[in-house]
């Protein structure tokens, strides 16, 4: 599938900046939006005219983690159809459960290098 409008939900602005640079480096016509506050992201998604084609969701965030936000996204019919890729460090068992429940389409740990991030994004986008 071709993803042209993606949303990154990650509370770390440095990680978001690196993610944005990696997306741009792929030279694809992809529009990336970043949300640093998961609660605000959920509110904005509920009222958005155009929904993203794909959400990259960080797991480790304060106040509401990625797993909790994922549950909220999947409980809202309009948002439940958006494919989600979970990023970060929860256990592999947790990630496989979410895959089996069709709540996410993929997961990966935050890469240790920029080139690794580009390779992961290239395989997805």
From TrEMBL:
Domain of life according to the entry: Bacteria
Where are residues bearing 4-aspartylphosphate located in the sequence? 58
Single GO BP term = phosphorelay signal transduction system
Residue ranges annotated for the Response regulatory domain, each copy included: 5-125
Sorted alphabetically, which SMART domains does this protein's record hold? REC
* Gene3D superfamilies the record matches: 3.40.50.2300
Q: What is this protein called?
A: Response regulator
Q: What is the organism of origin for this protein? A: Flavobacterium panici
Q: Which classification does the entry list for the species?
A: Bacteria, Pseudomonadati, Bacteroidota, Flavobacteriia, Flavobacteriales
